Amino acid sequence: MTVHPAALEYVSRFQTDTNVKIVDVGSRDINGSCRGVFPNADYHGIDLVAGNGVDEVADATVWKPKRLVDLVVCCEMLEHTPHWADVVTVSYGWLRKGGRLIVTAAGPTRVPHSAVDGGPLHAGEFYENIDPNDLEAVFIAAGYERVEVEVAGTDVRGTGVKHG
């Protein structure tokens, strides 16, 4: 998705040069990507639509990795699916113990935008801003620990760690 500077800044808090295994959910690069934050990662991008940055076309709500990963990154896509809570929940099972989920999404005040091209919504396109309290509740219900959710400008962003 479109990874704007504030989203990239948040993900960069978790930057590492180590060789971590990462799944990027909603990885299609419309106008920026988080890949550069993890230069030595074994990086696997999934998205519903083929495109730049997509290694596998897949529905995250039913997809399973071949092996557990260290990090799941989900930037600027949750607002584009009515099943966003399922994405947060299933990603817990993709992580090794101690692994982390990092999320950035449109918060309550963000103007709706298209997942197709970042412009105005297309006819019939789903969009719903993510409430920070709902995001935190889903993280906790999924089993994540050390959950942190914050609002910054029009963004909601959060992280949690798999018990381990």
Keywords:
single chain; 164 residues; alpha/beta; Rossmann fold; 3 helices; 7 strands
What would you say this structure looks like, in words?
By secondary structure, this protein is an alpha/beta fold. It has one domain (about 5-160): 3-Layer(aba) Sandwich (Rossmann fold), CATH 3.40.50.150. About 20% of the residues lie in helices and about 30% in strands. The protein contains three helices and seven strands; from the N terminus they run αββββαβαββ. A seven-stranded mixed sheet has the order 3-2-1-4-5-7-6, with helices on both faces. Helix 2 packs parallel to helix 3 (about 130-140). The model has no long low-confidence stretch (mean pLDDT about 95).
- Helix proportion range: 10-25%
- Total domain count: 1
Shape type: globular
As for the CATH topology, it is: Rossmann fold
Strand content: 25-35%
**Name of the top-level CATH class:** Alpha Beta
Low-confidence parts lasting 5 or more residues at pLDDT below 50? none
Looking at CATH, the homologous superfamily is Vaccinia Virus protein VP39
Number of E-type strands: 7
Strand order of the largest sheet: 3-2-1-4-5-7-6
What's the architecture in CATH terms?
3-Layer(aba) Sandwich
| Sheet having the most strands | 7 strands, mixed
Q: Give the end-to-end Cα distance, rounded to a whole number of Å.
A: 30 Å
Order of helices and strands: HEEEEHEHEE
Tally the helices: what do you get? 3
Structural class: alpha/beta
Mean pLDDT: 94
Radius of gyration: 14 Å
